[in-house]
Description:
The complex is a heterodimer of chains A (114) and B (111). By secondary structure, chain A is an all-beta fold. In chain A, 0% of the residues lie in helices and 53% in strands. Chain A has strands spanning 4-7, 10-13, 19-25, 32-38, 44-51, 57-58, 67-73, 76-81, 90-97, 104-105, 109-113. In chain A, strands 2, 4, 5, 6, 9, 10 and 11 form a seven-stranded mixed β-sheet that branches. Chain A has a four-stranded antiparallel β-sheet with strand order 1-3-8-7, with no helix packed on it. Chain B contains no helices and eleven strands. With 111 residues, chain B is mainly beta. Chain B is globular and about 45 Å long. In chain B, a hairpin with a 3-residue loop joins β7 and β8. Chain B has strands spanning 3-7, 10-14, 19-26, 30-38, 45-50, 56-59, 62-66, 70-75, 84-92, 100-101, 105-110. Chains A and B meet through β5, β9 and β10 of A and β4 and β5 of B.
Amino acid sequence: GAVVSQHPSWVICKSGTSVKIECRSLDFQATTMFWYRQFPKQSLMLMATSNEGSKATYEQGVEKDKFLINHASLTLSTLTVTSAHPEDSSFYICSAAGSSNIQYFGAGTRLSVL
Amino acid sequence: EDQVTQSPEALRLQEGESSSLNCSYTVSGLRGLFWYRQDPGKGPEFLFTLYSAGEEKEKERLKATLTKKESFLHITAPKPEDSATYLCAVQARGATNKLIFGTGTLLAVQP
Lengths: 114, 111
């Protein structure tokens, strides 16, 4: 099956610092990658969609300068939370889709900003 | 506006007690309906994709069905390891693979 690796699984940082999260498709080429945010006991909220080699498309209300997305290759996308603040604390999950329209998800990253 | 509603929000079953989860949807042209399983603190795990009304898919104790307005996830003789949150999502035509998720059903199966 399709495997998506996400790192780190858990990160704690100080307010004002930046955090980078990596998402890799291990056994398929991901033409499109997605970044979601999930609050406790709530469903997944799409933040942005990225295609390899092009700029990400952000959902309404998501600050593109706050959440920097880079999709440099067909197997790697990164999300950088810049100048993180406590309100950015959340569970961030990436997914990847290849030639099929099925999204396969990473294990998620728990971000805690102190 | 495309929308997905799941019910019930939570369901508690005894081991072996079969039941169904519901996913009602409104979408401007359905490309696909997806079921995922999510364990606490983990990312969703893909279960099924359904593309047209009348389609059914099975995997072990799970069976997903689709009509023009809703999908059901039937769980036959569940085991405690089936406990998880089950998420339903729809993909509209021309939506560049974007998924719209429901809020999920939290299933607890007691031994």
